Amino acid sequence: PEPLTPVGTDLDPSWVWLLNRFSGERIFGNDMVFTYGPLGFVIHPQLYLSNVILGMLVNLAFTSLFAWILILIYRYRKSSSGIVAPFLLLFLWILETPNGIEWKWALTSLTAMSMATLMVEYSKCVRCWLFVFSAIAVTLLSFVKFSYFIMIASQHLILMTYCIFREKRRIAVFALIYFGVVALCASILVSALFSSFMSFYNWIIGSIEIASGYNLAMVIIKPWPEIALTYIIICSVVLFVASGGKGRNCMLVHWL
After folding, report:
1. Which of 32, 79, 126, 226 has its CA 20 to 30 A from that of 220?
2. pLDDT of residue 83
3. Using CA atoms, how far apart are residues 244 and 152, in angstroms rounded to an integer?
4. Burial class (CB in 10 A: 0-12, 13-18, 19+), 6
5. Burial class (CB in 10 A: 0-12, 13-18, 19+), 188
6. What is the model's pLDDT at position 89?
7. Which residues contact 109 (CB under 8 A, 6 or more apart)?
8. Between the CA of residue 152 and those of 78, 142, 172, 220, what are the distances in Å?
9. For the stretch 82-104, what's the b/e string if a residue is b when 16 or more beta carbons lie within 10 angstroms of its beta carbon?
10. At what angle do helices 146-167 and 197-217 cross, to 10 degrees?
11. For residue 184, what pLDDT is reported?
12. Which long-range contacts (CB under 8 A, 24 or more apart) does 159-168 make?
């Protein structure tokens, strides 16, 4: 995880302390509503109970998923050369993004889902595990901060919708696995982290309202290289998809 955040009286150290102090007490949705959820402490763990260990384990899990994706790209580099370049750019963006460790986790989950849906050269077993890990990651992140769930889940659905027209029957099996894992993980986490389903519902509604106001008040202008890199990544993936999954027809992807 990121370096331990010391306890302080400023704004950020105060809510970090709050997330760590009340972790595991099932007060979200009843006594507390915040943009971060009951697992928000794993991003900024402090020396309280076993929070540091849990934070390290979650970070290790996402790091392992990131490493596995790199291994998959290396193993299938000859049969899927057209998509390697944009994914390597995305990896560079993940490693260099200054927005915090939660965004690295979110982008890693999105990358795993992108590879599960677009890399048809992979075996059914590999793609199945990519769908499973993507589902676990998006569910876990939703209890870290619900706005991440909205962002990542919507992008997952876009990718899955594209595959409906590309694979039809096979994607139905993958979709069943994906949504089954999401439902199973969500039910386990809701029962473990909230006192009731109504508390869970109250936290979702309150989190969305707080996040909406926060986003309007905290608009940040990104430096132009980061914006340019974002558009390059998006255009590369779009060109790859437009080429029918064959990178040989996509000159820009090969040039990148």
Report:
1. 32
2. 56
3. 24
4. exposed
5. exposed
6. 60
7. 62, 65, 134, 137, 138, 141, 152
8. 29, 9, 20, 20
9. bbbbbbebbbebbeeeeeebbeb
10. 100
11. 95
12. 159/113, 159/114, 159/117, 159/118, 160/117, 162/117, 162/241, 163/117, 163/118, 166/120, 166/245, 167/120
pLDDT at 249: 44
List the alpha helices (DSSP H) in the chain.
Answer: 11-21, 51-75, 81-96, 101-118, 124-144, 146-167, 169-193, 197-217, 224-242, 251-255
Specify the amino acid at residue 12: D
Instruction: State pLDDT tens for residues 59-106.
Output: 888 888 888 887 887 776 665 545 555 566 666 666 665 556 777 788
CA quadruple 136, 170, 167, 233: dihedral, nearest 10 = 20
- Residue 223 above 50 pLDDT? yes
Task: Please report the sign of the dihedral spanned by the C-alpha atoms of residue 210, residue 34, residue 215, residue 10.
Answer: positive
Give 129-132's long-range contacts (Cβ < 8 A, gap of 24+). 131/174, 131/177, 131/178, 131/181, 132/177, 132/178, 132/181
- The CB density around residue 66, as the number of other CB atoms within 10 Å, is 18
User: Cα separation of 186 and 153, whole Å?
Assistant: 13
97-150 residue pLDDT tens: 555 677 778 888 888 888 787 777 778 888 889 899 999 999 998 898 887 787
Tokens of 58: 């979650």
Output Rg (C-alpha) for the chain, integer angstroms.
19
Contact of 23 with 32, CB cutoff 8 Å = no
